[in-house]
Amino acid sequence: MAPTKLELFYDVVSPYSYLAAVVLERYTRTPSPLWPLELVWRPAFLAGVFKAVGNTPPASLPQRASYLLQDIARLSRFFDVDMTVPETFPGDTLRAMRLLSAAALTQPARVGALSMALWRRHWGKGREVASDDALLWATREAGLDDGAAVVARTSDAEVKDALRRATDEAVARGAFGFPATFVALDGEDALFFGSDRLELLAHTLGLPWRGPRPSTTAGAAT
Fold this sequence. Notes:
This protein has a four-stranded mixed beta sheet with strand order 2-1-3-4, with helices on both faces. The chain is globular, with a radius of gyration of 17 Å. It is of the alpha+beta class. The chain has a single domain (5-205), classed as Glutaredoxin. It has helices spanning 15-28, 46-53, 62-79, 94-106, 111-124, 132-141, 147-152, 157-172, 198-205, and strands at 5-10, 38-43, 180-185, 188-193. The chain is built from nine helices and four strands.
């Protein structure tokens, strides 16, 4: 049976997760989507994944950190996504991810819009996403009801546990970094890692692939 949904595990600290999310939205959420699949947002904590599997942040290697700056500039043009490396990179996104976890518990239909708002601020404008002001701004941008109440819930044990469970689940299913996209394929839980494996994902599922900008009207981020 063909899959009906794509699960995207991500952290807004990850620029590659941002790129993957933009492209997946372009293929699944347009008025006439090329992929008849439901995009399921699964916010998780990348630092927790790294700790669990013994991975390290890409920028921790000096040579790769230097390359990352060039890579982001090239990818910005290729994906048609405005990107600015945050002044403090890697930034602190724990509260942002707890905010997304809180939204998933209370207003799940807005998690995608809230994720995009946080990414536009952090990677589009290069600004922090840890302060109350930043989180409140994102809730307004995403159209959440009573954003202040959702921000307040970032300190709740229930929200912290939800983020921890999502992170543990990602690791248990084989993730070692983000973005991690999972689909049910021939009865198996199949992982596709990175924003540069979406073409392979399309090929594997027998879906059309027209590059990261499938429409000439595709903008930076939906």
